[in-house]
Protein: 4-diphosphocytidyl-2-C-methyl-D-erythritol kinase
Organism: Rhizobium calliandrae
Amino acid sequence: MHVIFAAGDFNFVQEAPAKINLALQVTGQRADGYHLLDTLVTFARHGDRLGFRASHRDEFSLSGRFSPLLADEADAGDNLVLKARDLLRQAARTAGFEAPPVHIHLEKNLPVASGIGGGSADAAATLGGLMRLWGIAPSSDTMMAIALKLGADVPMCLVSRPLIARGIGETIELLPHFPSFAMVLGNPLVSVSTPEVFSLLARKDNPALALSLQMPNDHAQWIEAIKGLRNDLEPPARTLCNEIATLSQLIETQGAVATRMSGSGATCFGLFDHLEQAKAAAASLHSLRPDWYFQATETIKGDA
Ligand SMILES: C[C@](O)(CO)[C@H](O)COP(=O)(O)OP(=O)(O)OC[C@H]1O[C@@H](n2ccc(N)nc2=O)[C@H](O)[C@@H]1O
Ligand SMILES: Nc1ncnc2c1ncn2[C@@H]1O[C@H](COP(=O)(O)OP(=O)(O)OP(=O)(O)O)[C@@H](O)[C@H]1O
């Protein structure tokens, strides 16, 4: 059955923007195995969308290009949206509030297991949407604890603004002066496992992002700074997924001023000078590889 997301049927609609790691350096490893990162992150004006409405029983529905990939997990109650709902309801119960049943709809527009945090963005949007629907405002400590239980990327997705994240993602520095970029996102639709990529790292003691020492001032300076950075997860991801090299090269040949992989891959982004150039590049990439995912977008400004 082809389901369409009728946003007007829901009390609240929440965007779940794609997360882009513009740079990522792995600086260490905790005793529990989680890796310490320094990462420069921004968010796209493109992502999943979620709807929330009161219902007589808990319901979850899916639509969107990539929803078929999540159908089995959703049936098993494994979707991060359902986990976020249950953790928030549990926290409300502990505080003496019995949260009523809810129908949540997820329009899945982002490729799955692709390094742009789709599941984390959905989990963060669920927390935001249900706080509005249920009229609750847990403390920031409670929210951080819930977010980290859901995934290392969830705290940054709750913020959804340009930032530098450290630790495993729990220490967040906002970048209010960060510019917007025209961007193309590309994915070969091969899913890449985050733990597997981390396990193939050659070094885990890289230096911190050099940015903290001298923050660029404007769009051009940021582009230059980003060009000089890297993603430490890109070499191991390339060994797991041959398509990343081809994809990255294809985006570069469309005139991107910088190209890199996001997160643990396989999504790569290209930065362009103008949105029109990004749109033209996405269209031409789509005609070259109609079986892959390409999306032109703009990223969110720091003070948006
Ligand atoms: C690569 C990034 O996307 C960068 O933003 C994140 O660090 C990954 O965040 P995520 O997908 O939310 O990751 P989680 O779901 O918390 O972790 C999945 C698995 O990846 C590995 N993992 C994840 C994050 C991290 N800092 N170190 C790790 O070693 C762990 O084996 C973990 O069990
Ligand atoms: N709502 C959801 N959207 C996407 N994946 C989900 C969702 N719920 C559960 N998952 C599971 O989580 C795994 C990771 O998916 P996700 O798309 O968040 O990965 P990612 O883009 O690599 O994230 P990150 O950049 O945070 O590493 C998937 O393999 C999928 O099985």
Residues 118-134 form the longest helix (17 residues). Residues 21, 24, 33-35, 37, 39, 117, 120, 151-153, 168-169, 194-195, 198, 263-264 surround CDM (ligand 1) (CB under 6 Å). Residues 120 and 154 are 5 Å apart (CA to CA).
